[in-house]
Amino acid sequence: MIFSLNFQALKWIPFNSEIDETDLVNAGEYSGGSMYIARAYHAGDLIPGKFLPQLNNLCFVSYGGQELEKDEFEVLMNTGFKWVKASEGFVPENAVVGGRSLTGDKLYVGRTMHGGFNVPGKICRRSKCIYVPYGGEFSHKDYEVLVQILQVQEASKGKSSGEFLSQFPAC
């Protein structure tokens, strides 16, 4: 048998109230519920941020020292990710690019502890930090980066690793 390692395509979709939250990338919990990965445009930038369904289905991004509310945004569907610790602008291989600045810088999806919660935001390699929206824009040198997980598939039949491994009895 021949196997191949593939990434599922990133799936950003425009938010609508029919989306099932269990299909989204959860960035963490806060006192009002869950925070999910989202992104929105502002001033020519496409900015990764947070989506909080409990707060009127809004996306929040950080820009220019402020936390901005956006009612038109995209959410990231969960196709296989993990969080990897990093700091000072480092992003590991297969990090999720969530946007781009007007100057052409890639903005990676990340999260960091702020206010006692894991808050998602944008990692800017040039600035060597993550910026998170939380009643303003806050920067941190230490953070976690969202990274895509490789999916193993049987090349000849297109089976996923889960389908392949289910052929064997559990230990």
Task: Report the structural category.
Answer: mainly beta
Helix content: under 10%
Order of helices and strands: EEEEEEEEEEEEEEEEEH
| Number of β-strand runs | 17
Please report the distance between the alpha carbons of the first and last residues. Answer: 22 Å
Overall geometry = globular
Please indicate the percent range of residues in DSSP E strands (runs of 2 or more). Answer: over 45%
* Rg, nearest Å: 17 Å
Sheet with most strands: 7 strands, antiparallel
Low-pLDDT residue intervals, each spanning 5 or more residues: 159-171
**Overall pLDDT metric:** 87
Helix count, per DSSP?
1
Can you offer a commentary on this structure?
It is built from one helix and 17 strands. It has 171 residues and is mainly β. The strands form three sheets. Strands 2, 3, 4, 5, 6, 7 and 8 form a seven-stranded antiparallel β-sheet that branches. The protein starts with a strand and ends in a 6-residue tail after the last helix. The relative contact order is 0.22.
Summary keywords:
17 strands; disordered C terminus; 171 residues; seven-stranded antiparallel sheet; single chain; mainly beta; globular
